[in-house]
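Justification of resources, computational component.

The compute hours requested in this renewal are based largely on the per-chain cost of generating structure records like the one below. Each record pairs the submitted sequence with a full structure-token output. That output is archived, and it is also reused by downstream analysis tasks.
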Amino acid sequence: MYSSISPRSCSNPGCKHSSCALCICCNQYLCIEHLQNHSNKQNDHQLTSLITEINILSDRFHHVSLVEPYLITSLDKWRTDAYRTIDHFYETQRRHFEQFIQENHDKQRKEIDHLRLKINDLIREQNATQEDINLIKDTIKLIEQDLNDLSNIQCNIRPLVIDENIAQIQSNKITQNLLPLSRPYRTMNIIDDSFCWMTTNEKYLLIHYKPNLYLLDRQLSLITKTPWIHGRIYIMCWSLTLNRFIVITNDTIFTIDENLMAIERCDLNYHNNIYHNWRSGSCSNTNLYLSTVDLGSSIYEFTLLPSIQFIKEWPSPIICRKDECIDDLCYKNGKLAIIIFHQPTNEIRLD
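The structure output for this chain reads:
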């Protein structure tokens, strides 16, 4: 704080002593006697300023909420969406159960009515044989057994398991950890180096692992699988609007229900001279976006409803230059994120 200089008079009024130091804070020459007092005053001033700053922080602490409203709003929205998903699942399953019970009731009622008519006919015609009577007895026993089975039917429902890492608080400050991912809680081994494509909806994970499509739940337990014989897959995504998975090979678009029971082919590639050599894709609630594989890539837009139909093309150079190609794209919140590869420099950028 201080530096020695050539002797000068002390700057303190009325002091006759020579100065021994220069205060670099206020540029005053001071003698030994007044130097300590001056230093104490300067320290007191700085401490007073620090107390003021602490009081300001304390005031913010007591008047500003430590939890941003957005965090609570996000959690509340998640809870509302989760309740809606559970309610939808419950209503769907209940309809299935009620339909199953009603169909069995109707079937048994018809059998009883038919049996009653048969007995009335035999009584009216007076030509019943012992064989007819035995057949009626056997039929009654079967109906009775069906009723007993229906009354003892059970529903096996697995408990709803919620991942503890589904909600996490993350700071917005810049750190060295660019991917703040939680530790994996399930692992599925891939036994060779073949391509493994995947996509997901709210309930299932769909994986293409040669030679099958596998449907897994959140615990990576196998639900079902089906052979895939339609060529190499380049794109997989889930459409909430169609309530189906969209799977795209080099030249064909397929839609698959979430139980892998129905695979439907879209033949639009063979109409209107639509280019059919796809590289990447993504879908919104209303549209499907596909990019082509070659240099000077284009993006094609399709409707999802009432059927998948071509709308328009964005050719080069609207999206990328003739010496560039689209590596991948993703739709989110009304925008397309596009990864573009520049061949001459081997550089990659995100648009």
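The chain has three helices and 18 strands. The chain has three domains: 2-63, 72-151, 196-350.
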